[in-house]
Specification:
Blueprint: H1 6-11, H2 25-44, E1 48-53, E2 60-67, E3 70-76, H3 84-97, E4 101-108, E5 114-115, E6 121-124
Length: 130
């Protein structure tokens, strides 16, 4: 049996066989928690939830929620701050689908919700709700 410290587990050290994804273990847990919330709220609204990744991973959006009103795109970040690099795929998606895009959101670990000058809502995951 191999023992790991809490820090090693959170970073995802040597967990490639257990957690088949890049990034740390805590990031996977955070994104899974977001997925549970988003899917639950979407189901209540008769909306569908998808993940978008273009060929080669050039563009990726964590959650695409599609309902009668249009498309809501959500990016999840295990960070208390959000910068331009965190929203580039959301902005790309808005350019691609135009008026079908009813909102862009970054769910994060920070304490405040606000709207960026580009219109993207930045919301702590704890405040995300219907």
């Amino acid at each position: 049996m191999v023992r790991r410290s809490a820090t090693q587990l959170l970073r995802g050290d040597s967990l490639d066989t257990i957690v088949p994804r890049g990034g740390g273990f805590l990031g996977g847990i955070f994104e899974s928690s977001a997925a549970l919330s988003v899917r639950t709220f979407a189901q209540n609204c008769d909306a569908q939830v998808y993940h978008l990744r273009t060929e080669g991973g050039r563009h990726e959006v964590d959650f695409i929620v599609e309902g009668d009103q249009g498309v809501l795109a959500i990016e999840v970040k295990l960070s208390s701050t959000v910068d331009d690099s965190d929203v580039k795929h959301l902005l790309w998606l808005r350019e691609q689908i135009g008026d079908a895009c009813v909102g862009l959101v970054v769910a994060h670990t920070g304490p405040e919700a606000y709207r960026r000058p580009d219109g993207i809502a930045v919301i702590p995951l704890a405040l995300l709700g219907p």
